Amino acid sequence: MPFFNNPYVHESNFEGGTNAEWTSETDTESKLSIAHYTTLAQHGARLEVPFQGAYAALIDLALGTADAYLQHDTAYDLAADGTLHIRFYLFAKNLAMAASDRFTIFALQAAGPTDEVVIDVRNNAGVIEVLAAETNAAATVRATPLIQDQWHCCELSANIDAGAGNDGTISFFVDGYQDGAQITAL
């Protein structure tokens, strides 16, 4: 039977040990690598990894402050009222951030580029949190404390505004649990 209902627009497991599944990479300080799981263990990640395969993306924030990211910009083209689902695993070790610091780990962008939906990590009065928001502004945020030294499954479902009536939504899940109520009227 043919497989017509593939739910993934883009999937990357880094199994080739490269970022070939992505359109481009920005990393002027060499903070980003595609690492074998034994390298992750050297950085403190437990070997009970939640992903399949032998490789994962590794960003070492201690190597600088410039942006480091992978970009895929060919398959996410959504019309108004389209829905996009994102899932990835996150492991943070020895993450230290100044009060009110915040950085983006996923951004869904519109033309411009303009961040429409983000998943960020922030220091909220001494509590390191992972959060979802309509933009990387402070409004419309759903956040949960980020427990370090363990893997977390982050999932986001974004329904794009149909163009009238502010009917877009964002649902954010961490480790299988919805983080707060669905963000609505976007």
List its traits.
disordered N terminus; four-stranded antiparallel sheet; single chain; mainly beta; 186 residues
Describe this structure in words.
- The chain has 186 residues and is mainly beta.
- Helix content is 3%, strand content 41%.
- It is built from 1 helix and 12 strands; from the N terminus they run ββαββββββββββ.
- β7 and β8 form a beta hairpin.
- The chain is globular.
In short:
With 186 residues, this protein is mostly beta strands. It contains 1 helix and 12 strands; from the N terminus they run E-E-H-E-E-E-E-E-E-E-E-E-E.
Give unreliable regions as ranges.
Answer: 1-6
* Inertia-based shape: globular
**Radius of gyration from the alpha-carbon trace, in angstroms:** 17 Å
Structural class designation: mainly beta
Question: What percent of residues are in strands?
Answer: 35-45%
Total beta strands: 12
Major β-sheet annotation = 4 strands, antiparallel
Give the averaged pLDDT, no decimals.
Answer: 79
Number of helices: 1
What's the oligomerization state?
single chain
Strand order of the largest sheet: 5-10-11-12
Alpha-carbon distance between the two ends = 39 Å
Order of SSEs, N→C? EEHEEEEEEEEEE
Helix content: under 10%
Give the topology, please.
Elements: E1 24-27, E2 32-36, H1 37-42, E3 55-59, E4 68-71, E5 83-91, E6 102-110, E7 114-124, E8 127-133, E9 141-145, E10 151-159, E11 169-174, E12 177-178
Antiparallel strand pairs: 1-4, 2-3, 5-10, 6-7, 7-8, 8-9, 10-11, 11-12
